[in-house]
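User: If only I could read backbone structure tokens as easily as an amino acid sequence. Underneath my words sits a plain record pairing an amino acid chain with its backbone structure tokens. This is the protein in question:
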Amino acid sequence: MTSNKIPDVHTVVRKVSKSRLTVDLLTGETVPLPQAFELRPNEEYLSASWLEFHGNDRAASVVATVHTLRKCVNIKPNDKCGFALGVVENIKATCASFKKTIRIVHEKKSNNPAYAAVRQIGPNNLDLMEALAKGAWRSVVKNADVEDANKVDQ
């Protein structure tokens, strides 16, 4: 499989299930829980999508990324999940503060041409996951806030 490093100034997007989202009581923002960045048993890396794969217009790229993820992991437009956005260099810096030298790479897949992998992040470390949730990967776009592709095309 061919993989290329994603530039540090670019953004990766991770789907976050509704059970791994919460509301920050101070700001009212929807934010990820640390468990959103937990490796499942036998998982070697975190899955994500490369935002700028879809172009440099951030708003349009968010919509395109969400539409791609809806298709490849069967997310309905009204599902209460979200998508955590993190800048690559910030994710790397957070991990480096826990003595983890990660790689964030583009690994194009047939159902998700923007597929990205966050490699060498394991094993799970709750303090690291919390730091990612509170910092580098704190920004969340709610699935319900992104227009349905079918409505956009009409």
Observations:
- The two ends are 37 Å apart (CA to CA).
